[in-house]
Amino acid sequence: MPFLRAIADWYMSFVDDTWSDIQFTLERDPAATLWLEVLLAYPGIHALMLHRVSSALMRLGVPVLPRTLSHAGRWLTGIEIHPGARIATPCLIDHGMGVVIGETARIGRRCHLHQGVTLGGTSTMRTQRHPMFGEEVLVGAGASIIGAITVGAGARIGAGAVVVSNVPPHATVVGVPGHVVAYYDPGDDTILRLPDPEHDRIESLELQVTELRSEIQQLRAAVNSDDVPAPAASSETAAG
Asked: For FRET with 97, which of 38, 114, 174, 216 sits at 20 to 30 Å CA-CA?
């Protein structure tokens, strides 16, 4: 009886978690209209459902089967989640193709991952080697977050960014390697932009190039006009 009760409790938790994911998807994805559509046609939901089964089996110490289910989930959805990863509810894996989540990754509540996101590791040791997310983290398409780093709550990772160091809460990170360019204040819904020396330098160089082009055009116009004075005669020619 205790065993059957444990299975029933896990099943109810599984249903509740899946329903939370569906509701979160309806909240965050304007293309989602009906819960049944999300359940049947969203690969991120299917990947999370399979992950919860494989993760439960791994915690029970079942060999081989958890990784086999993970592999089946990758084949069916294009999303690879190691059974050892911990993903809080709700979570949204948007589109999802190419998403890879490593064994020791930790994802907080209400996180939103787009397609092509990688949560990878850099160590060969059996320790914490994958990223740890706080709540409300948004990761753009194709971003790579590598190593045992912490991404603070409310952080936003831009598409294509490569993040290899800790990200403060409510920070916006872009670039390769990723660097903080702004902070979001959830209290008054404002964004505080930070100085970006690289961007400022590029703008300065573009301005100089524009000025040089203008000067070159003026010189060409002067050369082609009749107003260009003849070159002064040298002293030797004048003496002769």
From this structure: 174
